[in-house]
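Incident log entry.

Two folding requests arrived from the same account within the same minute. Monitoring flagged them as a possible duplicate submission, but the sequences differ. Recording both here for audit purposes.

Request one:
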Amino acid sequence: MRIMKTNTAAGRALVRKLETRVPANFARVAPVVARIIRDVRKNGDGALRKYAREFDGVTAAQSLRVTEREMDHAWKSISPDLRKALQHAERSIRKFAKWQIPKGWMREIEPGVQVGQMVKPLASVGCYVPGGRYPLPSTMLMTVIPAQVAGVKRIVVCSPNTAQVTLAAAAMLGVKEFYRIGGAQAVTAMAYGTKSIPRVAKIVGPGNSFVTAAKQMVSAAGDCAIDMLAGPTEACIVAGTGPARGYAADLVAQAEHDPETSCVFITWKKKLTEEVKSEVEELSKSNKIARQALQKNGVIFLATDRREALQVADRIASEHLTVERIEDMEEMENAGSIFVGPNSAQPFGDYISGPNHTLPTGGLARLRGGLSVLDFVKIVTVQELSKRGVKKLAKSAVCLANTEGLTGHANAILARTERA
């Protein structure tokens, strides 16, 4: 990792570059993705099977839909320790999701005027679980569990190259609708539907550039909602004391996701910059992907003091952010998920501490947090007026309606005053 001072021209320029980054540019894959979308929309299951055979190794004898028997067999085939680990993670994620559920309520805003909200689950969602470089049963848990907690009735999972552990996680969660397809074709099937895969209302979950570009296209067309456009993983750590090895281990851990991962360490202690740099080099020696990411996108900033270090981190708005103290966290506005203190290794959040690991990247942490129960519900507002309430609101409402020139609005209100 290179070391840059924040009070130099080069350092300031790099901070600005990180601050103004955008979610990944999909221009390179857009033509291919657009062609796949057109093909699946036109040819349905036939196109899906073609791409499943070409990209995911699905044979002609295999059904696109994974059977419950396959999932149950996978659950029984994994080790007892792995079953316990999945169950432990499931409990934490489910408990956290339950704490996130918004509440319905009704209150009197003025005499005779009751207002409130109902919290209703989406009718259906599609959960995309990547299956490329690594099997990711954790993403199965992070996308399916909050949908279940929200009360979504139909939950569809699409995942290519399905590993036994991913099937086992689906069995544990009671997933009923699981398809062994991936890529832009899976996103298209969930967004528009085919003979065997009815469409869903919303698609969530991370994926490669083809998956994310497809999510962008179907949402831009207004045909299907999505959670967010997730690019390569990002990690940022702000610290003035050690453990240098622990912080370096976090950076290497996130870097091994993808050669494009962005890893930033910010400190105001010169000695710590050298210690972290040395530990990163040591820990990434045998991790090719992490080494590539750290060499390309890894930087250690030496700030003038703690306050500036936190300000730089807030400007960067990273997906994962580690700070030393609760007081530091309270000064931050922009981060996907925050880890407080030297013991809070970022991979705990990836697997088992409870908060969701599907997080905003590319600066989107300025606009939203990670995936949550809120992504699977809609807030429906409610209002009820008594005759007393009509008398209370009518004069002002009619005045506003007439000001806007909407006489029909005014007449609808006046019609109620005749009965009040």
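Request two (distinct sequence, not a duplicate):
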Amino acid sequence: MAARNPNHLEHLIKVLSKTDIRRQGHRRAYGPRCGAGGIGEHGLDPDQVFAQSETLLFSRVVAVAEKAGKHVKLLTVPGSDPATALVQTAAMLKSARIVTAPSRTVTAAQQGQIVGGAWEKLQAPRPSLSLEIVTNRGKPVDVL
């Protein structure tokens, strides 16, 4: 599950509502930036590792998960291209599905093409991967 906007977490709410923790354990929520390990691990100040926007995003993700009675693991993902970082991370974690919110700049179809293009750049053999974009009203759109 990818999250970038703390004000639009409808996709997280949908994923958490469908998650049976007895069967699947936990979900991971991914943020937009990279972290350099634990705070202080490399002599960095907290602001160098985690910007205020990530703090707000992760705080809201945790609050939504707690309200749903679910557990999430939070992770920041490095990269200058969000689609590539998202697809590479999903592949490394052996995820079969990416759930995200709609882009503010492109249509769902274009978002699917961008993520599909990033998937095509993965080294073969590429894993099966689906993309679900959950609208701000909580309605899912399967794109890939």
